[in-house]
Amino acid sequence: MDEICRTLKEKGYRKVLLQVPEGLKREAVSIASELEKRSGSSFIVDGEICFGACDHAGTRAYLLGLEAVIHLGHADIPSMSSRCSVPVHFFPTPMNANPDQLLDGLHHILDKSEGKRIGLATTVQHLGLLGTLRKELESEGFEVLIGGPGRREEFPGQVLGCSFRSPEAISGSVDLLIYIGTGDFHPIGLVSAVRKTVWAIDPMTGSVTRYDQKELDSFLRKRWAAIAAARERIESGGLIGVVIGSKPGQNRKDLAGRALSACREEGHLSSPIVMDDLDPMKLHSLGIDVAVITACPRIAYDDAPRYAAENVVVITYDELMIVIGRKIWEEYTFDERW
Ligand code: SF4
Question: Which partner from 101, 149, 262, 285 sits 20 to 30 angstroms from 170, CA to CA?
């Protein structure tokens, strides 16, 4: 709150939009009224779903005649375009964690693994815990490596669902990687990025999970099935929709242009489609059989069953290249073309 009020005062903003991630939505109204009380600026609360920093409401605020967006819960994506937007100020919101449980998890990992050079990575809400792990590891004689940020990250060691550049930068120098966070997607992406064993520690419970080639293979089998399904649709004359995201940090119109040219050069029926919030029904209504998603790559990776229920196969740009024979399966990569 103090930091936000300082920014409002320094910049002289009087009319501001407050945007919060889904986990803070229940608090949004009380945060806005507390900020109004403390700063004297007036706030409108953004009621739309917010998927990440890539989905900031700078254009909505501009259309409303507001002066800035205060965006909580995510870090800036430095390479993101700021066209048609008021200034957006990002305030990451660290999650509380129990350091004792975190260290219990760490010792569990150290008991079960070998190697003296350990890489660390996490998402923005747990970045503050990297220092705790580093200190403990170094005090026990380990060498700790944390990769610098890529074009989409603001901080060293930070990973996004669409960018693993930080751990990739240290992949050749570490024996294993420790990730702080929950869920399978990031650790599997990290195995692919560093080609080493990845251990994940849940910072709330201290429980640990090991990920290596077996988990990556299971993910890849699903992607292979999507590629095979897309090829079948395309070979029988199906329509390819090349989806361009209109969210400020998801807009890859050049990549979409390359996908479209490739489809047309190979003689496949295809059309560019622009979308903001992607939805299987919207693509189904347009008669799309295969959607090449150049917006958030996790739509293809995580939401494939929802799209399958509407008879739409969702793939990434690199997967399209395999489908149309411009790349071979052995060259498969996660979608990080930003
Ligand atoms: S594009 Fe997707 S994975 Fe990347 S920051 Fe946005 S929501 Fe997250």
Answer: 101
Please indicate, yes or no, if residue 192 is contained in any of the structural domains.
yes
* Residue 193 token pair: 């990025």
Give tens-digit pLDDT for 68-121.
Answer: 999 999 999 999 988 899 999 999 999 888 899 999 999 999 999 999 999 999
Q: What is the pLDDT of residue 82?
A: 87
Q: What is the CATH number for 260?
A: 3.40.50.11860
Query: Do 198 and 103 have their domain in common?
Result: yes
The answer to whether 122 and 130 have CB atoms below 8 angstroms apart is: yes
CA distances from 127 to 135, 156, 168, 315 (A): 14, 9, 17, 31
Q: In angstroms, what is the span from residue 160 Cα to ligand 1's centroid? A: 7
Residue range(s) defining the domain that contains residue 75: 2-91
Q: Pick from 151, 176, 211: which residue ends a domain?
A: 211
Instruction: Annotate 262-295 with DSSP letters as a single string.
Output: HHHHTT--EEEEEESS--HHHHHHTT-SEEEE-S
Distance CA(256)–CA(39), nearest Å, equals 43
Q: Is residue 268 part of a domain?
A: yes
What's the confidence (pLDDT) of residue 157? 98
What are the angstrom distances between the C-alpha of 13 and each of 41, 51, 67, 157, 179?
A: 7, 25, 6, 32, 38
Q: Does the CB atom of residue 54 touch ligand 1 within 6 A?
A: yes
Our measurement of the distance from residue 178's CA atom to the centroid of its chain's CA atoms, rounded to an integer in Å, reads 18
Ligand 1 neighbour 52 (Cβ under 6 A): yes
- DSSP, res 159: -
* Strand-pair partners of 158: 122
Distances (CA, A) of 285 to 75, 87, 241, 280, 337: 35, 36, 12, 9, 28
pLDDT score at 98? 87
Domain containing residue 85: CATH number: 3.40.50.11840
Residue that is last in its domain, among 211, 244, 262: 211
Q: Is 250 touching ligand 1 by the criterion CB < 6 Å?
A: yes
The protein residue whose alpha carbon is closest to atom 4 in ligand 1 is 162
247 within a domain of the structure (yes/no) = yes
